[in-house]
Amino acid sequence: MQIFRTEPLKEKLRSRTLTDREALPYLLSMFGFAAAAVVFPFPLGSSWVDRVNQGGTILLAVLGLFYAYRQNGGAKGHDLALKYIVLGEVVVMRCTLAAIPTGILLIWLGNQLGLRDRTFGWYDTILWLVFQVVAYQRLGRHIADTRG
């Protein structure tokens, strides 16, 4: 994996010889850092629930990508990044549209049963982590459908 030098990468991209196996570490790093950048603005004094949410989000981003890689055929797969971006956008849209009414219902139910208060607690964290698991599972399934 090249960390600072781009010329060897650009040559492989120009010649279309960069394999999915070679691209995987770059994707894992990018998604891991992107997830960390999103979840770590919480203050240092955040609760254990916040830390579970943060750690779970980062872990699921990396595991979800690795799952997609495996569903794409692993080292024998092709076009993982392209499939991940294109199919991922559709999956995120679908899951978000399904999650809005489901989330409203579950939050209302949680409030009625006293399972959550007005802060971002364990109930919300579980809902968010389940959303991510479902989205990554669906994306992997759609990517598996593209294997030829």
> Which term fits the overall shape?
globular
Number of helical segments with 4 or more residues: 5
Structural class: mainly alpha
Query: What does the largest sheet look like?
Result: none
Give the termini separation.
27 Å
Mean pLDDT: 83
Describe this structure in words.
The protein is mainly α and 148 residues long. It has helices spanning 7-15, 20-39, 48-71, 80-112, 122-145. Helix 2 packs antiparallel against helix 3 (48-71), helix 3 (48-71) runs parallel beside helix 5 (122-145) and helix 4 (80-112) packs antiparallel against helix 5 (122-145). It starts with 6 loop residues before the first helix and ends with a helix. 16% of the residues are buried.
Task: Spell out the blueprint of helices and strands.
Layout: H1 7-15, H2 20-39, H3 48-71, H4 80-112, H5 122-145
Quick structural gist:
The protein has 148 residues and is mainly α. The chain has five helices and no strands.
